[in-house]
Amino acid sequence: MKQTFYKYQGTGNDFVMIDNRLLTFDKNDTKYVRTLCNRRFGIGADGLILLEPHNEYDFKMVYFNADGNESSMCGNGGRCIVAFAKFLGIIENATTFEAIDGLHRAKIESHSVQLQMQDVPRLEQFESHVFLNTGSPHHVQLQENLAELQVKETGSRIRYGAPYHESGSNVNFVSKISDAIFSVRTYERGVEDETLSCGTGVTAVALAMNFIGETTRNHITLNTQGGTLEVAFKNKDEGYTDIWLIGPAVQVFKGEF
Ligand SMILES: N[C@@H](CCC[C@H](N)C(=O)O)C(=O)O
Questions:
Q1: From the candidate CATH numbers 3.30.420.40, 3.40.120.10, 3.40.50.720, 3.10.310.10, the one assigned to the domain spanning 4-116+249-256
Q2: In which band, very low, low, confident or very high, does the pLDDT at 111 lie, cut at 50, 70 and 90?
Q3: pLDDT band at 25 (very low <50, low <70, confident <90, very high)
Q4: pLDDT the model gives residue 257
Q5: Of 170, 171, 175, 169, which Cα lies nearest the Cα of 143?
Q6: Measured between alpha carbons, how far is 69 from 45 in angstroms, rounded to an integer?
Q7: Which one of the listed residues 74, 115, 174, 205 is annotated catalytic?
Q8: The dihedral of CA 97, 101, 102, 104: what is its sign?
Q9: Does pTM top 0.95 for this prediction?
Q10: 9 in contact with ligand 1, CB cutoff 6 A
Q11: Which residue is catalytic, options 198, 206, 207, 220?
Q12: Fold agreement between 4-116+249-256 and 123-241
C-alpha cells in the first residue's frame, strides 16, 4: 500500500513528516528510515517524524535522525509537527503534545511556531565550551572565523572525541554579533554533518551565552545557515525555565512512496 508523506522545513532543517495515527509505519526498520532520508536514494531529509495518537494530549511526536535511529528531542522538528497537526485539523493555534523528553506546549502565530522546551536545570562550563541538554545533548563553543570553519570535520572530531564518544553530542559553533544576536553553525549527531539549523542547538546556544555572561538578555536572536530563530527564557536560581523556541515551519511538498 502507498504511504503518503509530507516534507517540512524549519529554517532549512528538513523532515519527512508522516501521519501515523493508524500506527502502520514500521518503526524498527532503521535501514528503511535511513533510505527515505537519503538525499540521493530517497526523499532526502535531516530526519523523519511520525505524528501518532495520544490518549490525553493532542498527539505524540516520534523523531528519527537521518541515520534511521530514533533519537532525542528535535526542536525544529517539534515546531514543524505543530504546523503539520494544524494542517491535518488536529489542532487550531495552540497545543500540548508529547515528545521523547516529555510534554511540550506550542502556539502558532501566522507562519511562526513557538515551542516550549523543557526546563534546563544544569549547565556545565569548561575552559573552551559549555555542555547542556535542551532535550538533546549540546556542546557549545565560541568560534573565531565562523564563516570559514570546516564544521563537518571539526564537529565530527568533537562529537566522537572524549567525553562524548559513540553516544555523542551535537556541536554548536558560535559567533557573537551583539548582546542580542549570535550566529550559529551546528554539527548534528545522527545526521553526522552540518545542518542548516538546529532548534535544540540554538536553544542551547542562547542559554549557554547567558550562562557565561556573553549576554544579559532573555530574548535572543540566532542567525543560522537556514534563517533566523529566536529563543526566550527566564533565569532560575540554577538553570533556566519557561524556554521558548520561535521561528518559521513550512510545508514544502506532499508525495507518496
Ligand atoms: N535538528 C534537531 C536536533 C535533532 C536531534 C539530534 N540530531 C540528536 O540526535 O541529538 C533540532 O532541531 O533540535
A1: 3.10.310.10
A2: confident
A3: very high
A4: 95
A5: 175
A6: 13
A7: 74
A8: negative
A9: yes
A10: no
A11: 198
A12: yes
Cell of residue 219, nine digits: 530574548
Q: What pLDDT is recorded for position 158? A: 98
Outline where DSSP puts E strands in the chain.
4-10, 13-19, 47-52, 60-65, 94-99, 102-109, 112-117, 123-125, 130-133, 137-142, 170-176, 181-188, 193-195, 219-224, 227-235, 240-248, 250-256
Is 57 within 8 Å of 96 (Cβ atoms)?
yes
Domain-wise residue ranges, the chain: 4-116+249-256, 123-241
Q: Could you tell me the three cell numbers for 149?
A: 570553519
3-class DSSP state of 117: strand
In testing the pocket of ligand 1, which one of 14, 61, 65, 191 has its CB within 8 Å of the most ligand atoms? 65
Q: Per-residue confidence at 1, pLDDT binned at 50, 70, 90? A: confident
Look at residues 85, 109, 113, 87 and name the one whose alpha carbon lies nearest to residue 97: 85
Residue from 140, 188, 225 to probe ligand 1 pocket by mutation (most atoms less than 8 Å from CB): 188
C-alpha cell at 95: 497545543
218 marked as binding residue? no
The pLDDT of residue 219: 98
Is residue 74 scored above 90 in pLDDT?
A: yes
**How many residues are there in the chain?**
257
**pLDDT above 90 for 104:** yes
* Domain 123-241 falls under CATH 3.90.1150.10: no
